[in-house]
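Hello again, I could really use a second opinion on something today. I've been staring at a protein lately and its backbone has me curious. Please have a think about how the structure follows from the sequence. I owe you a coffee for this, so here goes:
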Amino acid sequence: MNIIIHLPETEEGIEELNRQVAKCHADMIVRNINKLNTSKSEKEKLLNKVVHIIEQQ
C-alpha cells in the first residue's frame, strides 16, 4: 500500500495543521479519561494534571 501525503506549504497551512493535530490529541485524551472507571472528581484531577504537564513543556 502506498500513501501519499500532501503537507501544507504556507505558514498559515502549517499553523492550521498544528491546531487540528492538537485538537485531535486533546479529544483523544478527554475520551480516554472519560472511559476510566473512576469518579468524576478523579477524572477532573487527572485532566488537570495532564493540562499542567502540557503547560510546562
Summary: Residues 12-56 form one domain. Helices lie at 11-35, 40-56.
